[in-house]
Design a protein that fits this description.
Blueprint: E1 2-8, H1 11-19, E2 24-30, H2 35-46, E3 56-62, H3 72-85, E4 93-98, E5 105-111, E6 124-127, H4 143-148, E7 154-157, H5 163-178, H6 186-194, H7 203-212, H8 221-227, H9 233-242, E8 245-254, E9 257-267, E10 270-276, H10 289-294, H11 303-306, H12 323-377, H13 381-412, H14 422-431, H15 435-440, H16 451-458, H17 486-501
Helix pairs in contact: 1-2, 3-5, 12-13
Length: 502
């Protein structure tokens, strides 16, 4: 059984969600006349308290698919157990069952304000964190338990204290009572983690195994644990590389900068196949970064000192027919890791620099405005507008431009750099004198054919005759007026009339 809790104050909204256009069944009403009027009646009671914010509590309980459909009496039993556990007995409550899903589930919503007192339920005694006792769960202490628990181990808390944990505990109890599918309690889940029980492969891992054939690293846990027992970081890396594995640090960005969080172990032939080092933990031995480092020799370098100046692993250079290729590929993988780490550090530095530059620009603007205000205060009001223009042109803009140029120079040193490809890396090694790299450089590829240009070249060009230059129309006015025809005279007459209108 799965539970979910939502707090709020919109009674009309929850009623609409549960009733409108839903296949539903009202199982129980307490303190209200009907589900349609429940929103108004609960809102009227909630108005008695002006201080409370979460006046509505909505809890959903869902049964597993294999549990089938529960009857109404079983769901009401679940609702009653939950009401007692959350200390909401006597308050307004509505239980609605939905039938439009594949799994059977109910919704229970309460008005957390008592109509008699106008307040939320009173505080109760609970165990403090770190004072767990056998037989006492996350619920409020009973009168006998209050007497048995010393004062330093308990505290007064509000009714909503650890509401989700209490609801989950009630779900585990109901599963046992009703014979439903049983989920792990938080204590059982923690014990399973400490026992080192590996989870089943996820769907992504199964698909990767089917597609690539690489074995998930969690299945090689014993083999990896065996090689992590060396006494310093170089020997650990050599032993892992002998297995075709490697590791890299995991960082977290905080307000103070970059923080080293742990190690990630990955397959060099399938870099997507990776696990955290802490996933290898056993009850008797831990394999996180700090725990591994604690078992090193006294003179061994710390990880944060060794990692930036590490070199290529000797075990990564395999022997055989492709020895040169493997050596160069291992060197290229190391180069790629260093490039990725460098880019991550530059990204963090850019983020920090961006904040510093924003603050610096804000301080300069504030200083310029203060100077402008002080100087303008010594001028008559009629001269201030002209002073503001001169001040902006001669002082503010030049200083801000100078600061922007300085900021650009700072950011230029932290610009992103492109990682060379495998072919470019081989060419760089060949230029540095590595004969094996020169042998492995692939021949240059021919440029892709420009088929459009070929088609244009192969097309038959149709030569066009030069255009005929049209001769100017002969002037209707000849040298002698007697040469004009009657039609020409009429045309000239009409044209003169049109010019007069224009």
């Amino acid at each position: 059984m799965i539970s979910n809790i939502t707090w709020g104050a919109d009674f009309a909204g929850i009623v609409r969600y549960l009733v409108e256009n839903r296949d539903h069944e009202v199982l129980d009403l307490k303190g209200v006349t009907s589900v349609e009027l429940a929103a108004d009646e609960m809102a009227a009671v909630a108005a008695l308290s002006s201080r409370a914010k979460n006046k509505l509590l909505h809890v959903s309980l869902s049964a597993a698919l294999e549990d089938g459909s529960l009857d109404a009496s079983q769901w009401l039993h679940c609702a009653d157990e939950l009401t007692v556990a959350l200390r909401l007995v006597g308050l307004q409550r509505v239980v609605v069952r939905h039938k439009d899903k594949a799994h059977d589930h109910v919704h229970i919503f309460f008005c957390t304000i008592d109509s008699a007192t106008g307040q939320t339920p009173p505080k109760s005694w609970y165990l403090k964190k770190g004072n767990a006792m056998l037989g006492i769960g996350p619920h409020a202490l009973s009168e006998s338990e209050i007497v048995a628990v010393p004062l330093h181990a308990r505290a007064l808390r509000t009714y909503d204290f650890r509401a989700l944990a209490r609801t989950m505990d009630i779900c585990r109890k109901l599963e046992r009572q009703l014979g439903l599918r049983t989920l792990r309690t938080p204590v059982e889940a923690a014990q399973a983690r400490l026992a080192g029980v590996a989870n089943d492969k996820s769907a992504a891992q199964r698909k990767r195994h089917d597609r690539i054939g690489s074995t998930p690293l969690i299945e090689r846990a014993d083999e990896i644990r065996g090689v992590l027992g060396t006494r310093d970081w170089p020997s650990k890396r050599d032993a892992l590389c002998a297995l075709g594995l490697d590791f890299e640090p995991t960082y977290r960005t905080t307000k103070k900068g970059t923080e080293l969080r742990g190690l990630t172990i990955f397959d060099m032939r399938d870099t997507g196949n990776r696990i955290r080092a802490s996933d290898l933990d056993l009850p008797s031995q831990k394999f996180g970064l700090l725990r591994l480092e604690a078992r090193h020799d006294p003179g061994a370098d710390r990880f944060d000192i060794w990692w930036p100046r590490r070199g290529a692993s000797a075990s990564a250079i395999e022997t055989g027919r492709d020895n040169d290729h493997v050596r160069l590929k291992s060197s290229f993988d190391l180069f790629a890791l260093q490039h990725r780490t460098s880019e991550r550090e530059k990204a963090n530095a850019r983020k920090k620099l961006r904040k510093e530059q924003t603050l610096g620009r804000a301080r300069l603007r504030k200083s310029l405005m203060r100077r402008r205000r002080d100087e303008a205060a010594r001028l008559p009001s009629s001269e201030r507008r002209a002073f503001y223009r001169r001040y902006a042109a001669d002082v503010s803009r030049p200083e801000l431009a100078s600061l922007s140029e300085f900021h650009s120079k700072q950011k230029r040193n932290l610009a992103r750099s492109r990682k060379p490809t495998w072919t470019e890396y081989l060419q760089l090694c060949a230029e540095a004198g590595d004969i094996s790299a020169a042998r492995l450089v692939p021949p240059p590829r021919a440029k892709p054919r420009n088929r459009i240009a070929e088609v244009v070249r192969n097309e038959t060009v149709i030569a066009r005759a030069p255009g005929v230059i049209s001769q100017p129309a002969p002037n209707i006015v000849q040298n002698e007026p007697d040469d004009l025809s009657p039609d020409d005279l009429f045309f000239m007459y009409q044209a003169s009339k049109q010019r007069g209108r224009d």
